[in-house]
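Lab meeting notes turned into a lecture example. A postdoc, R.K., suggested we walk through two folding results consecutively so the class can see how the record format repeats. The first protein's sequence and structure tokens come next.
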Amino acid sequence: MINYFTQHHDHLFYAVAAVCMLIEISLLGMSGPLLFVAAGSVITGILLSLGLIHSFSVAIVLLAGFSIATTALLWEPLKRLQNRSSKSETSSDMVGKVLPVTMRITSANGRVSYSGIEWLARLDSSSNEPVEINHRVEVVSVDGTLLIVKKHLPH
């Protein structure tokens, strides 16, 4: 395999791009750093495939340059896209349901059970204290598959 990549540098850069994207998607959640290395690897691989680069050392330098350039060009737009707030759904059938807590719920994460399924949940912005297991929460809104909840106060 090493012999293959020493003879086909472009394929090495494509493989690096694939590994970077795999790690980025599975472990880092598209937070950024390896995304730009992957982009630089693909661009460098294409230039190698087209025969525009003949030296491996030049390819490495270009990989670094293209990674830095894609970071400079795409960092802010991707951050804005990631941070764009979406309105929570308040017309869902789930809103108003009172559910048991199966994993401690904080403002960052937690879990509830509904219809035999574990759902991701987090506290709404007005709630300060975590809700412990075996307590009940009320769904106040839904954000995709994430339930936004508050501690249920029985009447």
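The second example is placed directly after the first for contrast:
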Amino acid sequence: MRKYETTFILDPSIGEEKIESEIKRVSDLIQGHGAKILQNDRWGMRKLSYPIAKKNQGYYVFILFEGEESLPKELERFYILNESCLRFLTVKSETEYAPESQPKERSTPKSEAEDLE
């Protein structure tokens, strides 16, 4: 099994209940194929960089999951057929995610640190 990330943007005009049901449908599709959801982040309503289907805002959702190689193709098919989905992207994840990890401090090389003093 491989780790994948999928991010999709939903049309905000469909309403909060429909947004919740669409997110549940994606989660059920992933789990229905024997995959395990590792992280499910709802980024919420955000302004789009450019209009998509005459919409200026979208509801962003990020899901990290571990599944079979055929699952991203099924997700793509689902997104294409779903009229509520404005955009989507599914990629193999090469980054290790840990919810409790903190960003590392960038260390300054010794020679640069001496020059700053």
